[in-house]
Structure formats: structure tokens, C-alpha cells
């Protein structure tokens, strides 16, 4: 439990909070908790939301300085303002003196920790990253959520579920809703249910593509690439994810020289421990130098796209064609 959760639980609110990071589920959860804790039903006088990069600094400060009406606190939520990625002298200075009757909550995707805004929020309030929980916590959350909805699931099936759809809590929540609806009155969720109804996360499809390339299966790799393009995935995002998978394979190869502990390896590459075996198998088909070269070629291909010398779609096709023709280790 982080500082924000402790403050909400103990009702000891600071004047400034910054919740940042990519885990949208947690940001949405804490937003609801702040509203539930500080805003009475139907109270529109002491609650306001500012959203987007057009948020007016002066208007925000003016409202934050206004005493709450017949309430202890005024809650102001500011979402995706971009204030924490650029300089804002007026607002960064103001964060030092936000009235104690005001609770100012910023919810952002990205922040610059070197900037005055971040430093002011961290010093005079609470700045907390909303990141995906560790693997054990994530599995416990999935099983617990399903149990609350009258469903049971084996530990191995939770592994399969996370491996298939990814570890984003937003995605997992959405896919659990699908599973609950799909299984109806049936109590136990099986692997077959997950395979039938749950969407495969893009990063998993990209791994399958890289795995096909590593085994010299060019046709399969091209088919997977075509499926991703048909699903409206941008070619440059696919290329970025291919680079990330090659980097993970290189890391697995290097870390595996010093340890066989799958959990330790998983922590280094940022993957669930139960996926380490498949990464080790794919990495074993490359030498370290081949993986480094593959990453370099992807970066060079991206540069060719940026300079207009090749199309985005063709760039990935060429990477697949070239790397899948290599002699498999």
C-alpha cells in the first residue's frame, strides 16, 4: 500500500497529489476513491475536474484558492494537463502554498522528474507512480476479482490468462468481464474459456513473430505481421515492439549465464516468470552478436522510414525476410 492509499484510508489528506504512470486502472481507482472520500453526494460546489492540455493555470489557481462552501475540503482533479512535462513557473510556485482546505489531485501519464512541477509536488505533497503490481500481487488480484464475481480459477489458468492478454490491469479487467459473461452460470473458468474468448495482447503476437523468425519460419512470421496490420496496428509500433523483444532475448541470454533462477531472470527482463522458458528457447537460436545486429538493423530501418527512403509497412517486411533467412543456431 502506497502513501496515497494510506492517506485516503486514514483521511489525512495533503493539499497536492500527483498520480502518474501508465497503469490506467490504478489512476481510475484512486480518482474514484478521492471522490468517494471527499465529495458528498450531489455536491457540485466543492468538486471540479480540469482535463487536457488546454487547462488554464490562472483559472485553476483561482478555484484552488476559493474556500469550500459548507464543507471541509474542496477537491480539484486535473487530468492529462501536460503541466509536468513542461515549465510552468506560476503553478510550480503555487504548489508550495495550496490552502489546506483544498485537495489538488493531478493525474498524468508522463512526467519530467527533473522539472520544477514534479519536484514541487513531491516536496509539498505526494508524487506516486501508478505502476503495474508485481506478478504475485497481480495474480492475487485477478483471482480475487473473479472470486468476488462468483468464479473460481486455477493458479495455472491465471498464469495462462496473464500470459495471453498481458499485464495491464485495464486490459485484464476488461477480459475478466468477458470471461464472467461467457461462462455464465458455470463456476470454474478453464483454459479453454480463456483461449476462446480472450484477446491476445499485441506484445504476445509480436513475440510469436520474433519466435517464428528465430526458427526460420518466414511464412508464419509474415502471416502474423499481416494479422497485426489487419487489426490496424501501426507498422512503426510493431517495429518498436520487435526491437523490444530482441532486446529481451539478448537480456535473457546474458543473464542466463549467471543464474538459472527464472524469477530473477524475469525481474531483469520485466516479464512474468512463467514466460521465461519460452524466451530462453527463442534466445538459444541466436548468438549474442546476432541479437545485437538484429536490434541495430531495426534501428537503421526506422531511420530509413523517417528519412522517407522506405515505407513503414515494407520496413518490417524486410526485417522479417532478412532475419528469418539466417542459419538457425
Quick gist of this model?
The protein is an alpha/beta fold. The protein is built from 16 helices and seven strands.
Notes on the structure:
This protein has 329 residues and is α/β, with parallel strands linked by helices. The chain contains 16 helices and 7 strands. It has helices at residues 3-10, 24-38, 57-64, 89-94, 116-124, 135-148, 155-165, 169-183, 191-197, 202-214, 218-230, 235-255, 262-269, 276-283, 288-306, 312-324; strands at residues 16-20, 47-51, 74-79, 102-108, 126-129, 152-153, 188-189. The strands form 2 sheets. It has a 5-stranded parallel β-sheet with strand order 2-3-4-1-5, with helices on both faces. It has a two-stranded parallel sheet with strand order 6-7. The protein starts with a helix and ends in a 5-residue tail after the last helix.
